[in-house]
Write a structure and sequence with these properties.
With 652 residues, this protein is of the alpha+beta class. It is built from 24 helices and 20 strands. A hairpin with a 5-residue loop joins β3 and β4.
Length: 652
């Protein structure tokens, strides 16, 4: 008997639907026509043992027990899903062949592997396990996946990476949460001060940003513009570029702080001739944005519809499992296999059927175009999130489901539109010894941006595209530069003084916090770590980021204020108590880099775990007990501690 083991019941049902009939639905599995069976996990059926499972003394939280480090790791069956585990165990021991159909990611790999290993399957049978990778729950796609089974041994490094992650998270979370909670209780805080290698640096990002905003003192600065006129009467504006001699009057970002200096420049250039010292016009182009991975989709959905990360993930799971309208949603990849080009006609037909609003976009798509999205070398276990070939009445979708589907579909359709072409123009002018520059970006051909521009007549607006906001480019187009050349003379009609005020950094929102998690290198101090993160950038994974953010809200470390996300007093105090390495992204970014290296067979389990355990010993002793004495107060000491850490970070 061949046993197919899926990660979830929905996946199991979809697989069974393409296997021989008739089917017999049993308790916890489906027997198909040829005698084979399809069963399922319900997420993780096994979990890491608790500290007290290793030693009953550990049930009492005591500083003397720390660090708790198991010599032989134990798993135990989750009580809530024990019944399904026993059913699956019985089937595994009866089966002659096993097919692993976990989701195509790190967690999907290990949660089936650990069940097979836990049941004591003989080595010979375990080595013969096959792996089926499914990204699309529609019948034709599942049939193709079942026809292309791979050896599960190919994915051992992925499973080891997941195992290392689970054990390291357990060690870090158990020990650091205990030491902080014990110290907190001594200070009168009744509750668990949870610490995690991803959640805590994320909280640190928000806490430091909040304090930077509160400490910010707005200052005036000044810009000078020259209103210029050509011999033909054409007018344009150019901005003054302060020389090195002006540095004593500028801040670290080059802004002029002296109003007297700026007024003097205005006086010197008004009514004076100017000489064009350089004039360039470069035709440039930008290819369509790649199809979505989960984080990119969550960021755009937050910007466009104000949806949080968990809402987007939940909606995607329904579109994938319930409606079968999109491919596997927990993907970190933005590329597609070349084989998918064979499905473009049927996928576009499905989009046209589901989304009336995209009918024109579908009709005008040029299917002969091939964007850089189709790249087999960039695709591993899973590919970008795209619509499937399934047609469904849009009335069966909720408002949010339709919104998310349309975002995914529009991004996919952009692959069949030409590049956005624009002219980048730059004019440099010298006026009375001062340098002035005028720039303008003028669109030559909208190309794929047609899909994202405003439709004022229809009264609708397409969503923003990450890093390619059309409104921003419209502002750049507002000034059209005249056709001037080097050596031409222009007249400065007047100098214009613009007084600005420096602005504090903006508080995090759902979109910007997710963006920070996916681009964590921007917040990392160590240049070497920044270099490592070029290829493995990210705090958490596609599958975990939404849950981590929600966990911080649940633990009351974060709160929402309108559309912004702010740290609570408890959250800030926790950050103040921890050694800096525990509340900044550097360490966890290194972890993710090393875990990826394990998946890629570039390093091993031991080389990751041993340094991590050594670091843990040090961290436990570095927790700042004094911070917890402020838990009942107004937290002024805590505020100062975070500020000191933040300022020392900026100086370095």
């Amino acid at each position: 008997m061949k046993l197919y083991i899926a990660e979830k019941p929905s996946m199991a049902r979809a697989v069974a639907d393409v296997l021989p009939k008739p089917h017999q639905r049993q308790d916890g599995y489906i027997r198909v026509g040829n005698g084979d069976c399809v069963s399922w996990c319900i997420g993780h059926l096994l979990e890491q043992a608790e500290p007290e499972d290793y030693n009953p003394q550990y049930k009492r939280w005591d500083l003397g027990h720390l660090p708790i480090i198991p010599h032989e790791w134990k798993l135990k069956v989750k009580p809530k899903t024990r019944k399904q585990f026993e059913i699956l165990k019985k089937l595994i021991l009866q089966a002659s062949d096993l097919v692993h159909i976990g989701d195509p990611d790190r967690e999907g790999q290990i949660l089936v592997d650990e069940v097979i290993n836990y049941t004591g399957v003989p080595d010979k049978q375990r080595n013969a396990v096959k792996r089926c990778l499914i990204n699309d729950l529609n019948p034709n796609s599942i049939k193709k996946s079942l026809a292309n089974l791979r050896s599960n041994r190919e994915f051992i490094p992925l499973s080891i990476s997941a195992l290392a992650r689970a054990r390291a998270d357990w060690l870090y979370g158990i020990n650091m949460s205990r030491v902080c909670s014990i110290q907190g209780r001594k200070a009168g805080y009744q509750g668990v001060l949870s610490v995690g290698r991803v959640q805590t640096p994320l909280l640190g990002l928000v806490a430091r940003r909040d304090l930077e905003i509160e400490d910010f003192q707005s200052k005036p600065y000044f810009e000078v513009f020259a209103l210029l006129e050509t011999e033909k009467g054409e007018q344009f504006r150019a901005k003054w570029q302060p020389s090195e001699a002006c540095q004593p009057y500028q801040d670290d970002e080059g802004r002029v702080l002296s109003k007297k200096l700026a007024e003097n420049v205005v006086k010197r250039i008004t009514g004076q001739p100017g000489l064009i010292t350089a004039a360039t016009n470069k035709r440039k182009q930008q290819a369509a944005p790649l199809p979505y991975n989960l984080s990119a989709l969550q960021i755009d959905a937050a910007k466009r519809y104000g949806l949080n990360a968990q809402q987007v993930l939940n909606t995607c799971q329904d579109l994938y499992e319930k409606h079968k309208l999109i491919t596997y949603p927990r993907s970190d990849c933005r590329y597609l296999p070349i084989e998918h080009l064979n499905q473009i006609n049927t996928v576009l037909a499905a989009i046209d059927h589901v989304c009336d609003s995209l009918a024109t976009v579908v009709n005008e798509a040029n299917l002969s175009l091939r964007s850089k999205a189709w790249n087999d070398k960039k695709v591993e276990a899973h590919h970008a999130i795209i619509p499937t070939e399934r047609k469904l009445d849009a009335n069966r979708l909720s408002k949010v489901e339709l919104q998310i589907y349309e975002l995914i579909a529009r991004q996919y359709l952009a692959q069949f539109y030409p590049a956005w072409q624009y002219d980048d123009r730059r004019v440099e002018v010298e006026i009375n010894g001062g340098k002035f520059i005028a720039t303008a970006r003028q669109t030559f051909d909208l190309g794929w941006k047609k899909l994202f521009t405003q439709n004022k007549k229809a009264g609708t607006q397409a969503p923003d595209v990450t890093q390619t906001n059309v409104q921003a480019s419209d502002q750049e187009d507002q000034q059209k530069l005249p056709n001037v050349k080097k050596g031409d003379v222009v007249q400065c009609l007047k100098g214009e003084l613009a007084e600005r005020m420096t602005q504090p950094p903006k508080a995090f929102t759902d979109a910007t916090l997710l963006s920070a998690m996916t681009g964590i290198a921007r917040f990392v101090r160590d240049p070497e770590v920044k270099k490592i993160l070029r290829e493995t950038d990210g705090l958490g994974t596609e599958a975990t980021r939404a849950g981590i953010i929600e966990l911080l809200f649940k633990r009351q470390f974060l709160i929402r204020q309108g559309k912004t996300i702010r740290s609570t007093e408890t959250g800030r105090q926790l950050i103040a108590s921890l050694p800096e390495i525990a509340s900044t992204p550097d360490m966890t970014a290194q972890w993710e880099s090393q875990l990826t290296s394990i998946s890629n067979k570039e390093t091993n389990y031991k080389s990751f775990m041993e340094p991590m355990v050594n670091t843990l010993h040090q961290l436990i002793t570095q927790v700042d007990v004094s911070a917890f004495r402020q838990l009942k107060g107004k937290g002024q000491v805590v505020q100062k501690k975070i500020k000191r850490k933040y300022k020392s970070k900026k100086k370095s």
